[in-house]
């Protein structure tokens, strides 16, 4: 590190053997009603066009579902890593009945 990085970057501990962190960001502006998981294919396509696809893509739960995990791996060879959102249905909130 050069000492010019933000304090949080200098304070962060890196895994053994690593001296720096590579972060790739891509921005897509969409209407607020566009679900995040609809955008991951667009983001991967844009990064592929720049030859900047990551091997692993860390995302929040807005970007994860079974289709995204599979499609990203098959189409772009990118492993999407992130939590899956909880089931928001009334049946799940009710807490009884059958689980799938």
Helix and strand topology:
Elements: H1 7-11, H2 40-49, E1 56-58, H3 66-76, E2 79-81, H4 90-94
Parallel strand pairs: 1-2
Helix pairs in contact: 2-3
Describe the structure.
By secondary structure, the protein is mainly alpha-helical. The protein has one domain. It contains 4 helices and 2 strands, in the order H-H-E-H-E-H. It has a two-stranded parallel ribbon. The longest helix has 11 residues.
Summary of the model, kept short:
This protein is mainly alpha-helical and 100 residues long. It is 31% helix and 6% strand.
Key structural traits:
mainly alpha; 100 residues; 4 helices; 6% strand
* Count of DSSP strands: 2
* Distance N to C terminus: 48 Å
Query: Roughly what percent helix?
Result: 25-40%
Kindly estimate the percentage of residues that lie in beta strands according to DSSP: 5-15%
Mean of residue pLDDT values: 80
> Could you list the spans in which at least 5 consecutive residues all have pLDDT below 50?
5-11
> What is the total domain count?
1
Briefly note the structural class of the backbone: mainly alpha
Describe the strand arrangement of the main beta sheet, using strand numbers. Answer: 1-2
Instruction: Report the order of strands and helices.
Output: HHEHEH
- Rg from alpha-carbon coordinates: 18 Å
Shape: globular
Chain oligomer state: single chain
Q: Report the total helices.
A: 4
Q: Main sheet, how many strands, which sense, barrel?
A: 2 strands, parallel
């Amino acid at each position: 590190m050069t000492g010019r990085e933000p304090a949080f970057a200098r304070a962060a501990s890196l895994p053994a053997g690593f001296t720096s962190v590579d972060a790739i960001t891509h921005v897509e502006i969409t209407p607020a009603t566009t679900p995040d998981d609809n955008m991951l294919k667009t983001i991967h396509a844009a990064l592929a066009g720049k030859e900047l696809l990551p091997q692993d893509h860390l995302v929040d739960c807005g970007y994860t579902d079974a289709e995204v995990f599979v499609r990203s791996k098959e189409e772009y060879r990118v492993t999407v890593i992130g939590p899956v959102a909880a089931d928001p249905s009334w049946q799940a909130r009710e807490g009884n009945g059958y689980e799938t």
